[in-house]
Every structure is written in structure tokens, then in C-alpha cells.
Amino acid sequence: MIASLLFSYSSYILLLPMKTNIKELTQTIIDMIPTSLRFNAHDEAVFQKFKPFHEKLSEKFVKGFYDILFGYPTTQSIFKPDERPLREPDLQRWWQRTITGPFDINYWSWQAAVGVIHIKRKVKNPMMISIWGWILLTLQKEFSMNYSLQDTFEAMDSWHRLAITVESLIAESYLHNYIVALAQSTGTEFALLDRLVAIEVADIDPKNLS
């Protein structure tokens, strides 16, 4: 089964050139997400509805985000000791763009590009996925303390679709660009690289892993 999935992935990456066009990659990833789970026009309207509240959360969000990352040795290790003041404005810009929109191909391509940045900075996907978990938990707490149950559900429903879309873009872009770099550095074609991987994992039984 793993081998078949890898061969399927090989077919997907062959649709893209060795030097990735980020917008093409972005659209390819988005197309893999079931439509009902993608961030959509209704969600964008919901974000506009709650924009004043989102703006009030800005400073608290940025501080809490980096308190988590700098408070845990594994995630703290990816930063330089004096780097936090440089990174906070970047997150602030992301927050403002996200709560304002528009959610066009440029926005989604920006999210996909984060996958490349994470490779460079050695940010692993569990770090990215877990901090998104913190974002959602924090927002749910804030909304539940300030809005009705119905409003909280509406807001969080849209935030969850944003998280699904952004996490998918970052994680798959990370994988794709990691393979691009490996293929280019070794002079190996995508298809051959995937076949080699498939051969190596074909006989691995997850039940026997220890």
C-alpha cells in the first residue's frame, strides 16, 4: 500500500517542473483538498464579520505564539537567541493579512512558500501542525469567552477550514520542495527517485516496526 501511494505521488510530482512554479504547486495542492474542507468565500465573509475582534487579539496572539515556541527547548533551538524581535513583526504581518484578506492565489502561494522557509530553518511539520493546534485552541477559548455558542461555532468552523488549507499547503510544499532539492542535488529524476524509495519500503510491514 505504501509503495502504491508513493507511485501515485510520483505521478503527481511529474506534473510539475523540476524548478517549482509556486503558484502551480499551490493550485495542485489545493485541488487535492476536498472542496467542503477548503477555506471558501463564506469563510472569508465570516472573517470580515469578526475582524474587529480579530484585531483586538493581535498582540495577545503574537505574544502567545512566540511564548510557546521559545518556551519549549526543541522549538526554541530553531531560533537565534536574539531573533524574537525580528520574527514577531513577520507574524504580525501574517495575522493582519489573514484577518483582512483577500484570500487569492497570492495569499495561498505565500502559505505554500512557508514550506520552503521551513526546510531552510529546519522547522519540522510536527512543530507547524502543533502550533496551528495552539492557534485553534486559543481562538476557541477567546471566542467562547466573548461570543455566543452559535457565533463561536461559526467563527471556529471557518478557522478550522483555514487551518486545513494552510497546513496542507505548508506540509505538501515542504515535501515537494525537499524532493526537488534531493533530486537536483543528486541529478536523479523524480520518477527514478520515487521508484527507489518505493522499492526500499515495499517490504516494510508497519506491524513489525519497533
Protein model, in words:
With 210 residues, the protein is mainly alpha-helical. The chain has helices at residues 2-13, 22-32, 41-49, 51-56, 58-70, 73-76, 84-100, 105-121, 125-146, 149-186, 190-201. The protein contains 11 helices and no strands. The longest helix is centred in the last third of the chain and has 38 residues, at 149-186. Mean pLDDT is 89; it is low at 1-18.
Features:
single chain; 210 residues; mainly alpha; 11 helices; 77% helix; 0% strand; globular; disordered N terminus; Globin-like_sf; Globin domain; Globin/Proto
Question: Which helices and strands appear, and what pairs or packs with what?
Answer:
Blueprint: H1 2-13, H2 22-32, H3 41-49, H4 51-56, H5 58-70, H6 73-76, H7 84-100, H8 105-121, H9 125-146, H10 149-186, H11 190-201
Helix pairs in contact: 1-11, 2-8, 2-10, 3-10, 5-7, 5-9, 8-10, 9-10
InterPro entries: Globin-like_sf, Globin-sensor_dom, Globin/Proto
Organism: Candidatus Methylacidiphilum fumarolicum
Protein name: Globin domain
Please outline the major beta sheet.
Answer: none
Shape: globular
Helix content range: over 70%
How many DSSP H or I helices?
A: 11
Based on helices, strands and strand pairing, what is the structural class? mainly alpha
Low-confidence stretches: 1-18
Output the radius of gyration.
19 Å
Mean pLDDT: 89
First and last CA, distance: 19 Å
